[in-house]
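Researcher: I need the complex structure. Ligand is protoporphyrin IX containing FE. Inputs:
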Amino acid sequence: MKFKTKKLFFKPKVKLITLALLFFLQPIITFAQTDEGVSFFPNKSIGFIGILTGLVIIAVVLVLFLVVKLSSNTNYFLDQKSQIQKEKFKKYITNLNESDIEVLKKKRNQNSNRTSFLVLGFLSLVPQIMSAETAPAKREDLFSQPGVLITLVLIFIPLFLALVYLAAKVSTGFKNYVNNQKINEAKEFAAYISETENIPSDADLDEIKNKLEYTIKPNELSGNETASDSKGLLKNISTETNYRFFASKRPPIKRPKIDPELTRLILWYLGTAVFWLFVGSSVGEYVGIKFIVPDADNYSWLSIGRLRAVHTNLVFWAWSTIGIMGLGYYIVPMVSNAPLNSIKNGWKALIAVNSAMFVGAISIMAGINNGGGEYREIIWPIMAVWAYGLLLTVINFIKTIAKRTTHEIYISNWFIVASYIFILIVATIAYIPMGQDGIGETIVQGYYMHQAVGMWFMFSMLGVLYYLLPQQVNKPIYSYSLGVLAFWSQILFYTVIGTHHFVFSALPWWLQTVAIVGSVGMLIPVTSGTINYLMTMKGSWSKISNSYSLPFFFVGIIYYFTGSYQGTAEAFRSTNLIWHFTDFTIAHSHITMYGIITFLLFGSIYAIVPRLTGKEPPQLGVGAHFWLALIGLQFYTIPLMIGGTLKGLMWAEGKPFIDSVVLMGPYWLWRAIGGTLMWLSHIVLAYNMYKMMRPSTDIDVKEKAFEIINQDLEANSVEPKI
Ligand code: HEM
Ligand code: HEM
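Model: Output:
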């Protein structure tokens, strides 16, 4: 499609958008002009100004997005207008389906937003007023004052929200306009096709029908003959694809047998999980920024010590946990071939875990916590509510499995139920103070941390993969026995490796050795699991490009292998001596919790949600999500691994601690850049979720035209409706 820039620019809406752009860019340009050497980023205010600039950039990106969207929609119409209408209608006729043909045959027999822009205009005046009132000479002092900064932030927030609101309004207005145009076109097409002379002859219609019904014989396309398409085999080759560079994705097929109530429940689990991912990673992003700009703020609620715990608890116990629960509610009844035991208890559990996380996050920020134990900072009464949600769920699952109509309990259900039992026991032990004095607390801490990641997140996601991977590649799992080996060997080894977090600590030497040996033993389940998954995918690699979920699964499996081998490498005394206490561990945490768990969750969401709602995610959106997350993760982890190793070696040489902090500066900057990309990918995911879940407003011209003809037929005939 041609881009008709000139015409586009003179459109009033685009002019207003340009005005809006100017409104947001002007302050940057105005303030960026240096005055007597005064910098745009005076030392103390860099944090706030940085955030403001970030928000402005987001706003600009939003506006640009809108402009691109407007221009592509406008192009659509310019292009449409330039085509001869009849040609287009004829094209519709060559793409009829069987019911359309029936309607046409019957027809032959019978014949015998507005959106307001005033706000935008007003907004465009504001920069002038602002600039007029700014005294350049005093800018440095002014921007160092917290009061001014806070006022600016407070002014900016409503403006930013107003812009987002406006963008949404413009987008909906334009969509309505497009849809009205389509309805008009459908009416014209219906009128055109209602004329007897425009309806193809019965013979032609029968020919199209034959083409539709035709199936190819095994030897049909052999030989040297030129292809004549009398059988309609090439009908799917279309010049009207949206994105010609990408393989088209396999459309989802809605699963009719899932109870709509259960569908609603699962969508709520997955929806709230994505919400927590956004909140949790926004906090992580801010903590990452604080590593570069430590004095970005000085509020106790936003101190690194508190926000770090908010981040880890939200991504663990809210995003990953609620996501895993949602997947369980889909998979357990599905592989048991039985309805969920109690949907009501499913809702109770959802409310319990969500409210616990909400109160938990606020309490950590307020300074109410459980002390230093990592991942168990939230106080026990709140975590008890969370655990109640998990208990209700596992009882629900066990009762559902008990009612199964299949003979065997499928391997996924083994993994899923076992993981709930493990995490409930592990959390109970971690929260009961018994035996947790002195070194005992350290032992419990190591046990708790690693059981949580290994026997809850990893174990349950392996179970999910045993169901979704074969389903997505449409063939059975490569080896059930390898699955069973992975199940038992993971239980054997993972449960004894907790103390590898505290190598060289005051813990008994033999206990550390057991953990190190167990860490090596972990290579058995990891290798057998990886082989099983990759062999299941073998021969179906081409399916990766036309699936929404398989690319995420593939990345998750590769990280499962590499991340776990990396973990084994970290457990040895010689390596732990260098890497422990450094950012290398942070890289490992994200390679595993993000590269494995989060990527598998992403893939599972794209596999399940379209089956529940029957709506595809936007293809470009899924691509953007995938690449932003993957590239972001590389920028996050690789610099931290390099920086962490150099830092460890520096300490080994006895260099001053502060030198290692200076050394890490650039690596932390890269982490913040990578984190930003990951964070952006979560916004795209939220948008994709919305697209998969919202009621459809798009109109298909051909479908609409046949709906009109059908209504007409119905009104004028006594025959039953088809
Ligand atoms: C935008 C995405 C994210 C960013 C920018 C981010 C950033 C951070 C930062 C800055 C830290 C503190 C590191 C330190 O103390 O040195 C951290 C810790 C951590 N994050 Fe993230 N994070 C993100 C997403 C996630 C996700 C999705 C998960 C898990 C599902 C996760 C799991 C963790 C864990 C486990 C830690 C503790 C690491 C350790 O102590 O070894 N993060 N993150
Ligand atoms: C063969 C499997 C694995 C082994 C042997 C292993 C080993 C290790 C070791 C030795 C550490 C401690 C590093 C240190 O503090 O010096 C560690 C940290 C960590 N691992 Fe793994 N790992 C494995 C797989 C995983 C998986 C699958 C996940 C997540 C799903 C994971 C998540 C983490 C996290 C979050 C930490 C940081 C804990 C903290 O806050 O200190 N690991 N791992």
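Model: Summary of the prediction. The pocket of protoporphyrin IX containing FE (ligand 1) is lined by residues 281, 284-285, 287-288, 308, 311-312, 315, 320, 583, 585-586, 589-590, 593-594, 597-598, 675, 678-679 (CB under 6 Å).
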